[in-house]
Amino acid sequence: MKPAKILQLSVQPREQSEFDKDIWNGRKLRADIRPSDCPNINFKAISQPWLRQAAKQYVKYTFAILSWATCKKKKDALKYFSEFIAECYPGCQASDINRPIIITFLTYLVTKKLAEKTRLNILVDLNTFFTLCAQNGWADINDKVLVYKEDYPRLNKPQPKYIPQEVIEQINQRIETLPESVMRMVLVIQECGMRISELCRLKFDCLRQDSAGDWWLNYYQFKMKKDHTITVSRELAGVIQEQQNYIRNNLDSGFEYLVSGRNMAKHFMPLNKPMNPSAFTDYLKRLITTNNICTDSGKLWDLTAHQFRHSVGTPMINNGVPQHIIQRYLGHESPNMTATYAHLFDSTLKKEIANYQGRTVNISGQVLSAEDPELETSDLQWFKRNVHAQALPNGSCARPIIKGDCPHAYACLTCGDFRTTPEFLNQHKEQLEQTEQIIEKAKANNWQRQVEMNDKIKTNLENIISSLESDNA
């Protein structure tokens, strides 16, 4: 009996996943990569095997929820920590990481002369990394808190650098000197305040129209990894339609972007690729320098594309648009991001304080604004009203002490030092009714002096009530 033949099976080795490699190719992972970003993430600079493997898990997790550029920053933060371990604690394992090592790392970062914002980002990323490692078992990291918030560098909160109105006007006066596609890009970013990466990667079919005939712009936010839609004016919709016709007439029908790159060596001929952010920035710089666009002080304005984003958010705040509406328009994930744009002008601050506390009016019904709005806090105002001011049944007296005793005893409603607010509105109405009754009785008895005095009080009360009621409305 012949022995049965043994079937030989050849087992093919499993193809290595992109996430297992030391260099990830973002295009193979189908990542949303901005034109200015390198498509690769290189983990080879992380020399410790345990740290490199955990770093891959951490960045893989980040890749699922954040942008490709953010993934690279997460990896770079761990690269700094790897270099520190190799230099100061060679042979250190995950289980050896403790608080004293972290304290030494804080000093190490300072010696590298990194910007405070960079050091802050490294520590925040490292803290998140440790937490996720302990939660997911990526490395044998101590589950105790290793990085405290007190470790973070204290940053001065930067004010948004919005473009002054006089600069905006000069830009718009000279905008036709730009190539027509670039000119339309400036008009889009000026109204919509999008990021430069979002502007350069606008899709050809980004324009939408609803049933009411109003126009909307749809674009992808690479930073947030989500689509975003905002309303736009009819004028801007016309500009975008002009650009769509330009693409139809100059490029293949399959071109997917609204704005193409440009070959400056060939008379600004369009290319079959999207506009590069650095190229757009160069156009802005040349527009400023060629046309000598300056501020009112005569200083040449240093224009960047992101300033247009600030120049949308800040005026919205100053024009009283609620912050949650601005958050929705700009596509911010949290109110803290929008708060960056809440840079109020002094005049707006006075107005908002008046709206919050209620108007303060004098006997003529004239609204009074504070000369020093920083003093208009609730605590200081309570102190002033309850300690330093003379409380009246229907308001308060603003007469300075240095003026001496009041010469208008029981005649506050004819005194220029009288002040009142909406909380006394009902008392004013009651006093007006009583005053009208007094006038009616005085006229019946021909008491001319009483009529004259109370007519003045009646007029002032009517002015006060009218002004306070308009405030409540």
The CATH architecture of the largest domain would be Orthogonal Bundle
Question: What percentage of the residues does DSSP assign to strands (E)?
Answer: 5-15%
- For this entry, what is the oligomeric state of its chains? single chain
So, the CATH homologous superfamily of the largest domain? Intergrase catalytic core
Widest sheet: strand ordering? 3-4-5
Number of strands: 10
Distance from first to last alpha carbon: 107 Å
The CATH topology name of the largest domain reads hpI Integrase, Chain A
Radius of gyration: 34 Å
What do the pLDDT scores average to?
Answer: 79
Keywords:
473 residues; three-stranded antiparallel sheet; 9% strand; 10 strands; mainly alpha; 16 helices; hpI Integrase, Chain A; 3 domains
